[in-house]
Structure formats: C-alpha cells, structure tokens
Amino acid sequence: MTPISIKDIKLEIGELIRLRRKQQHLSQEELAEKMGVSRMTIQKLEAGKNATVDTLLKALRQFDLLEHFKEMVDNQKNSQSYPSLY
C-alpha cells in the first residue's frame, strides 16, 4: 500500500473546495468575501498551496462540511485511548 502524501491530500482538498464553489455558482472573489479572506487565499487553497487551518475550517463551514470533519475528529478521539500526559 502506497502511503498518502500531504501534497496529494492538499490537492484533493483543493479540488473539493473548487467543486463545491462551482456547484454553488460562486466566483473565487465571492467565496473569499463570504469567508472573510482574500481571493488569493482561495486561489491558493484550491491549488493545494499552504492554506492555514483557519482557512480550511472556514471553507468546510461554508460548504456545510465542518460538522463531518468534527465527527471524524471525535470518532478518532473516542476510538483510540491515549496515555495521559499528566
């Protein structure tokens, strides 16, 4: 099994954001305005360039995907027991 690269995931996320944006008939500028970021930020996100976690979470929220992401995080937290750091 070939490991998934960070670059590949960033590109896939960018493709997903672009697809969702186009499904909602939004330009990059319109999406940027709704998210409170610059058009260049959207362009970088869609191109798989170094987006911040905040930008990613804003995009997920904009496209009603944030709850799915939170569920995944919660499932991972609940399915694995980690030793206490204290």
Automatic annotation (TrEMBL):
GO terms for molecular function: DNA binding. Gene3D superfamilies: lambda repressor-like DNA-binding domains. Residues 17-69 form the HTH cro/C1-type domain. SMART domains: HTH_XRE (SM00530). This is Helix-turn-helix.
